[in-house]
Structure formats: C-alpha cells, structure tokens
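Posting here for the record, re: guanosine-5'-monophosphate.
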Amino acid sequence: MNPDVSKVAEDTDADAVGRLLILAGPSGVGKSSIVHELLKRPGRKLSVSCTTRSPREGECDGVDYSFLSTEEFEALVRGNGFAEYAEVHGNYYGTMRQPLEAALADGTVLILDIDVQGAEQIKSKYPEAISAFILPPCIEDLELRLRGRGTDDEAVIQRRLRRAEVEISKQDEFDHRVVNDQLGRAVSQIEDILKP
Ligand code: 5GP
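Prediction output follows.
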C-alpha cells in the first residue's frame, strides 16, 4: 500500500467526530418520515430508543425501539445506562449512552427522535448537539395526522394533543424550528442545518 494513502486514512479515522442531531416535536408531526429521508445519505444512523410502551402493529424490537419491561428500564437507569431518559405519555423512553458515545467516536451523524425533556438533557450533556423542533403547520393538521395513523384510541389521541401544545410552547429552546408542511421542504431545511 502506498504509505501516504494509509497515513491519510489513519488521520481521518483519528479525527472522526460524530454529530448528534436531535429532532423533537409532537407525536404525529411526521418525524419518522423526515428521519427516513435523512437516513438515505451515508454516515447517518438513527438512535434506537428504549421504551416501556407496547409495540404498535408492525413495529419490530431492536429496529423501531428496544421494548423493555419497566424493571429492565429501571435497572438501566440505576446502572447509568442512559444518556437521557424521560417519561412520556405514561411510559419511559430513553437513549442508551453506549451506542451514542460509539457514534460520536466513529464519525456518525446520529439522529435522535426524542421528546423535549430528552432534548434538554442531551443539550446539557453534549452542548455541541444540534437541535431542531419540528412543527405542524397548525394543530388541526396534527390532529388529522394522529387520527389518520389509526393506531391510537380517542383517549390516547386527546392526551397526545394536549401534550403537543405543551411541547410546542418549548420550541424556542431549540437551535432550529422546521415546519413540516411539505416533507421535501422540511428535509431540505434540515439538510441545510447539517451542512458544516
Ligand atoms: P411514540 O410512542 O409515538 O413512538 O413516541 C412518543 C414520544 O416519545 C415522541 O415524542 C418521541 O420523540 C419520544 N421519544 C422516543 N424515543 C425517546 C427517547 O429515547 N427519549 C425521549 N426523551 N423521548 C423519546
């Protein structure tokens, strides 16, 4: 191997610094579709959260979430296994510390789809993390999307809508705000945010 080439490769690895992109915003705002588009570029990964909520139809353990019992989750909390965790809609959700640190070490852009409480915790521990709050064009649009999903009953939808208003009131705590009125436009705004 050409020694100069191997030197460059080594330097690049040594300098690899990953980045954290926090995407928060109310349930049903379309974060998953945005994440799906962002992941089409190489060098990016989605942080797979742990949760104590039950899987929805079609969700896979280890892919959409790691589905844990409350006991398992609490044991991880005691063992300092989470970079952040929060109670959302009556269930625990958390980001494991180890895969997050690994992504930072290997130069990955790690996308975190987390709530505002988790975003706050990540920002205080990793101030260089980039945070974006995804907004619906209006609250009625959010309600339509939540109903359109067809996965949650009325009480759950009402709870999510009430929580959405609280979350939206915290949008100013984020580095960026992106209105998801058109998927392509929202994604390209986030791509701009990610440009070095
Ligand atoms: P859902 O139950 O609809 O999948 O998610 C409910 C909320 O929990 C969403 O706002 C989502 O962003 C948030 N969430 C998902 N994973 C995490 C996590 O690891 N930590 C925190 N704090 N919130 C999360």
